[in-house]
Amino acid sequence: MDPLVYRKLIEQEESLWWFRARRAVSWALLNRIQLPANPAILEAGCGSGGNLPMLSRLGDVYGFEPEDAVRNTAQARAIGHVAPGKLPNPIPFEGKNFDLIALFDVLEHTDDDRAALSSLVSRLNPGGSMFLTVPAFQRLFSPHDTLHHHHRRYSRSELMTKIENAGLKVELITYWNFFLFPVAVAVRFASILGLTKNQTPGSKMPPGIVNTMLFWLSSSERYLIPCIRLPFGLSLMVIARKL
């Protein structure tokens, strides 16, 4: 990934509407997962550690990240245990299995997503859960995805098949970022067609009021997703359990 993107991600992970909304919606599902007492939780590709405080509310947190620049920031948070690692291998903390493994927009970065899922499932305890988010709809693949080193976007059926083939049972799958989908699709296709000037994604923070409005609109889905499955959106969220 472009070093500039890494710097912006580190700077904006606490304040940019998208990161904040993803955490809010994710939490609405994460805190409903049945976990044992004192669970061990792994975040694969933890980046600069913006999700570690949230995950630490559920149990003892571990994370791994291949990129030094962002991993150093995660380690500086002093939350849980953070080590170098990369999918599909090597996953650190040898000999340690987990009750919950979380991937927040990580799977699309892997060269071989099937091998990545299989490797992670091998580190799940029996009955353990996996929570993941990924970008949706390959037709929306754009310069934004290329810059962020995405190899693919996912359809609901494709993601379900890959998860189930890895030995997991899908307990919940839903789209999110439903309300912003029409606007985002229009902007994305304008970019693909060269009708707008490409900018480094995340390189420009929206004005305060816009950032706040986008957060409240997208994060409001946390009240819907536990009750209904949204029919489309910019991303997919999944809870799956090891058979």
Helix residue percentage: 25-40%
Which CATH-level-2 architecture? 3-Layer(aba) Sandwich
Which regions are unreliable across 5 or more consecutive residues at pLDDT < 50? Answer: 198-203
Structural class: alpha/beta
CATH topology: Rossmann fold
* Fraction in beta strands: 15-25%
Q: For the report, how would you describe the main beta sheet?
A: 7 strands, mixed
Please tell me how large the radius of gyration is.
Answer: 17 Å
For the record, give the distance between the C-alpha atoms at the N and C termini, rounded to a whole number.
35 Å
Q: What is the average per-residue confidence, as pLDDT, rounded to a whole number?
A: 91
Tally of strands: 7
Order of helices and strands: HHEHEHEEHEHHEHHE
- Strand order in space, largest sheet: 3-2-1-4-5-7-6
The CATH H-level superfamily is: Vaccinia Virus protein VP39
Reading off the top of the CATH hierarchy, the class is best stated as Alpha Beta
Question: What does it look like?
Answer:
The protein has 243 residues and is of the alpha/beta class. Helices cover 35% and strands 20% of the residues. It has a single domain (3-242), classed as Rossmann fold (3-Layer(aba) Sandwich), CATH 3.40.50.150. Strands 3-2-1-4-5-7-6 form a 7-stranded mixed β-sheet, sandwiched between helices. Helix 4 (68-76) links the parallel strand 2 and strand 3 (81-83). The radius of gyration is 17 Å and the shape is globular.
